[in-house]
Every structure is written in C-alpha cells, then in structure tokens.
Prior knowledge:
- By secondary structure, the protein is mainly α.
- The chain has one domain.
- 66% of the residues lie in helices and 0% in strands.
- The chain contains 14 helices and no strands.
- It has helices at residues 10-21, 25-59, 69-78, 84-115, 132-166, 170-191, 197-203, 209-219, 224-232, 235-257, 261-273, 275-297, 334-338, 360-363.
- α5 (132-166) packs across α8.
- It is globular.
- It starts with 9 loop residues before the first helix and ends with a helix.
Amino acid sequence: MPIENTSLNISTIKRIARGRLRGHWKTAFIPAFIITLMTGIPALFDAVSRSTVWANLMADDSWLNASDPTDIINAINSVQMSGPAAVLNSLLSLFSFLCGGALSVSMAALALKIIRREEYSPSTAFEGFHQFARAFIISLLIMVFSFLWGMITILPAAVVFSVGLAMESAVMAVLGTIILITALIGYILIILRYSMSYYIASDDRFIPASHVTANSVFLMRRRTGNFFLLELSFIGWLLLAAMPLAIGISLITAGYAADLSGVSLIGVILSAAAMVPLAFVSLYITTAEAVYYSTITGNYNVNNAAGGAGQSSLENPAEPDSVLPESTSLPDSAAHEYFPDSLSSDNPYAPDPDPKRPSDSDQG
C-alpha cells in the first residue's frame, strides 16, 4: 500500500525545523561551520581561480576576433593557473571529490541529532568519515546517475535549443528555450530522487551504497515536486547569505585585473567571512530536510507523543511550534513501506532499529 500524504506542508516543515533549532543555534553552528568550511573552501578557491582566468582573458581580448579555433584555445591555455596555485587547486578539488560524501553524511547526522534531541558535538562534523568508503560510493553513484540523466534530458534539449538559434527563427528559438527549460526542471526533479540518500546512510550504516540510493528513489516517489518547492523556499536566504561571497569574489577579480593587492585582500576576507551566514543557512536547510525525511519515513508519529520503540516524537508540550499537524501524520506501518522489500527478517540489508544491538546470529 503506498504511503499517504505525499504533499507535506512546507511552512509546517520549516516551522518545526526552527522550533528544533531554537536554543541550539550556537552549539549546532560549530559543527555546521566546520562542515561548511571543508566544503566551501575548495569551491571558493576554484571560483576565484576561474574568475582570475576570466580577468586575464578580458585583459587581452584580441582572441575574440580570432578566426582560427586554435588561437582561441592557445589564448585560454596561456592564462590557465600554474605553479603552486594550480597544485593547490587540484588538491582541494581532489579533497572535495573524495570527502564530499562523508561531509554530506556528517551534515545529515547533525540535523537528525538536532530534531531527535540527541547529543552532538563539534566532532559530529567528522561522523561521516566513520563510513568514508560507503559515503564516497554513495556520492559517486549520485554523480554518475546525475551525469547519465543529464545526457538523457539536458543534452537533447540543448541540441534543439542550439539548432533553433542557428536557424535564426524566432519561433524555433522560443520553442528551443521552452524545451530546454522544461528539460532542466525535469532533470532537477529526477536528481532530487537521490536527496534522501545521506539521511538514509546516516540512519543505518549497514545498508549497501546501491541500496541507499535505490531506497531514496523509492522514498521520494511522488514527492520530488513537493520537496523541490521546499528547497525553492530557501532561495531568498541563500541569496542573502551568498551576497558577501559574490561581492568578495568580484573584488578579488577586480583587484587581480587592476593589480590592486589591497582590493583583492578585502575580497578574500569578505569571501571567508561569508562562510558564517552560509553555515547558518545550511544548518536551517538541512534541519528542514531532516524533518521532511523523518516525516515521510514514519520515524515518529505525532499521534504518539511519547514515541514507540524505534521512534522519536517531535511533539513537545513545551514547544507547540514543533508539533506536526494531523494532516502530516503517517500510519505506524509507514516505516515498513519505506523499505518494502528490505525489512524482511531474511534480508541482511534490513535496517536495524538499534544498530548497537547484535543480531541473533552474532549471539549464537
């Protein structure tokens, strides 16, 4: 039987997240900031390197009028980053590639601990590294699936769009634009099916990586549109938090192009300071996602304020804002519908409600 209530109230989910974070912003910020730094610094360095390359290209724009494609390629290669900066950029990119999954699991673990009133500490920022190989495989699978779905959806639409522009027809250009935008939205909705992977991985360390992504796809069935709207509702906060970062990168680029080291330094400081608001916003978003995940998996039921075995309740009489309304409650069997085929006692991949409890075979 399919899980009911596939459309959850977005404002309620966000209100619950704020209620759970109330009184925890300062303590939860520390591990969230550590994770944001480890994920943000490689991306920041890469963005700065790309902006400086563009500044160098714009300083000598003679290549724009080049008729030979080789001249354009040579011009771009001539301004590429080299020396220690290139090595550092490569190392940071490698770190991001290898550790991105573990950091995502750590952020998911922090958010789940917050909404479940469990203990957390700055070391929670490194919790995903306890399952480093598995987290990396999950991240790699998501990247591979994202690439393949992009080839299926976006690439054909981009070809149609390019053909429409080449034909110099207003009708074909508009049609190509509509097709491309539709393909992009469809691609986003498809990729959002994997959005619960890191929460599942944090919840149960014994499920193989391939099962984690498959279970996320099942869990998000008929919910990607609703989850997309939840993510879209944070766009204002993200833009506000990223504003210092955008200004900082612009100052770095302008200072580099004009050979003004002071302007570049101000840009570096502003970009680094932007990690603070980004960490707060990331914590808010991830906590809201954790509430969404816990709701649709039936890990707690608001009709049972005390919580049952293997459940945790968000209902707290002292915090009325953190109570889910009746419309978002799920039946007690929802957890079994979450893993319809993997909760059987014969399946070694079935999630254990208490991972510390040894299995019967271990006891024997």
